[in-house]
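Box 3.1 — From sequence to structure: cytochrome-c oxidase
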Amino acid sequence: MNGSSSGSLDPKGPRAESIADTWWLMLGLGTAVFVLFAVLLAVGLFRRRREGEAPPSERRWILGGGVVLPVIVLVVVFGATIAAMRTLAEDAPPGALVIEVTGHQWYFEVAYPEAGVTTVDELHLPVGRPVEFHLTSADVIHGFWVPELGGKMDMLPDGVNVLVLQADEPGEWGAQCAEFCGLEHATMQVRVVAESPEEFAAWIESQR
Ligand SMILES: [Cu+2]
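Predicted structure (token representation):
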């Protein structure tokens, strides 16, 4: 991995952001529920019932803590997940840049059909422009995943998977094949460079 790489919790594009937001929401809810139950447990352990005080209603606590609270939490998480999935499933808008990435044992072939340029283990994309990735494989199943930009997608030998990503700021990240694909799977990496449209155009020109 590249030294400046910081993973899916440091999103650099809209799709990675919706994944990170969902993660933080789940962490927040999980923490709140944990703290609530730790406090209730402490109260149950250390608080003595006062003289003549009626025991708590078991039914109310079981229904509240075992049914109502989980239903509320799960509905919120479900709604947030559906919203994030809709963002991730959106088609690329017209004008998106098409980049074809083909997995090989053990390297990434990256083609820019518009420009007629092909590179290996190096992927450049212009900042602020949606990119429609066409992912496939020349041999076994590989996995394409740039955590800073969005979700993971399989690269299959018998078809093309489409993944739309966009970088909102310049950066350089390492991406690693995300599906075990043989002995040298661990060395199958691609350097991802997001740069200004001018720098991108100059880079494409230099590759011709
Ligand atoms: Cu692989």
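Summary of the box: Helices lie at 14-46, 58-89, 197-207.
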